[in-house]
Amino acid sequence: MAKTWTWISGISRDGLSLSRAALILAACATTLSGCGEESPAAPKAVVGDSPLLALTPTEYNNTVRELLALPSDGTTWPELPTDVAALVPVRATGEGTFGTKAPNVPPWPWPLTAESGVDGFEGIAQGQSTSAYRVEQLQRAAMTYAAYALVSPVFFTCDAQVWAKLDKAAQQDCAHKSVVRLSQRAYRRPLSSDERTRLETFFAANWADSTAHEAIVLTLAGVLQSPAFLYRQESGETALAVGKVRPLSSWEMASRLSYLLWDSMPDAALFAAASKDELATQAQVQAQAER
User: Fold this and answer.
1) Which of 37, 39, 53, 169 has the highest CB neighbour count under 10 A?
2) pLDDT tens per residue, range 151-160
3) Which tens digit of pLDDT belongs to each residue from 276-290?
């Protein structure tokens, strides 16, 4: 199964048409031991252990853009609030020609180092590695994109236009709910009780020691550096395991579909299907793949 998925993800990113990818996906995504061996009503499953996959540079940038719902043209991203500018790492192309000032570069996409890959393909566990330099890259990117949450059209759960005019308690309540909602989308699944507790504790500490905007940025920077955001992990439904075979949860299937076909996080329709556990059969997966 792992080899099947590696093959599918590799060829789909190397030019396989969306219609062919959807057909292969519908045939293979839900099988226990290969392609086309189950009835349409059979549940999806993984075989044995599923490797921990880091988001590729392309997946990372696409995911950040979709998470913030900002344009694909980084030069058109909105200006940041002036009070968080000091938190954002300065990016420039280097020294300008003949000593002139170096031009600033757009905030997106972030120039992450390419993966070493396997046989020319990225997104394969054996071709992924980390380094101190990559950790630094991810930290700088996280601080930048956490700040851009403040100007994202999908961040605030209250009216963003009046948020700054709310009293401190109302601001904190809205900021807290907004951070939790974005974190769940960043993790591409509901938060566990432990994750929610840690997030709320971290946010409360930042709120007590920082300005409102700074508290949001510092908290979200932690979210964007967490393993749950940077990696795709498939644990499966352990309670339904048959030997080493574990059915994928609908949340895991949503990510498997979206990163295979789009190199990005699930869209609203996939999230909605996952929340209703409607990615549990081959027919349901096929319908989403064809969509």
Assistant:
1) 53
2) 999 999 999 9
3) 999 999 999 999 999
> Residue 225: which H helix or E strand, with range?
none
Q: Which residues of 195-208 are buried (b: 16+ CB within 10 A; e: fewer)?
A: beeebeebbeebbe
Provide the token pair at 206.
């930042």
The dihedral region occupied by 203, where left means phi > 0, alpha psi between -120 and 50, and beta the remainder, is alpha
In 3-state terms the chain splits into helix, strand, coil percentages (rounded to 5) of 55, 5, 40
Q: Are 186 and 67 in contact (CB under 8 A)?
A: yes
Tokens 């940041």 found at: 80
Q: What is the DSSP letter of 76?
A: G
204/219 Cα distance (integer angstroms): 9
Tokens 């997104």, residue located:
123
Strand boundaries in the chain, DSSP class E: 46-47, 53-54, 231-232, 245-246
Exposure pattern of 142-157 as b/e (b: 16+ CB <10 Å)? bbbbbbbbbbbebbbb
Residues in the chain: 291
Instruction: Give the CA distances from residue 17 to residues 23, 36, 123, 187, in Å, rounded to whole numbers and listed in that order.
Output: 10, 20, 19, 28
Q: How far apart are CA 180 and CA 15, in angstroms?
A: 37
Among all chains, which residue has been given the structure tokens 């980390």? 130
Structure tokens that stand for 127 in this block = 């071709």
The CA-based angle 143-178-190, given to 5 degrees, is 95
If residue 201 lies in a helix (H) or strand (E), which one and from where to where?
A: helix 193-209
pTM of the model: 0.82
Which of these ranges, 92-96, 110-114, 183-187, 281-285, has the smallest mean pLDDT? 92-96
Query: What's the angle, vertex CA 88, arms to CA 216 and CA 72, rounded to 5?
Result: 90
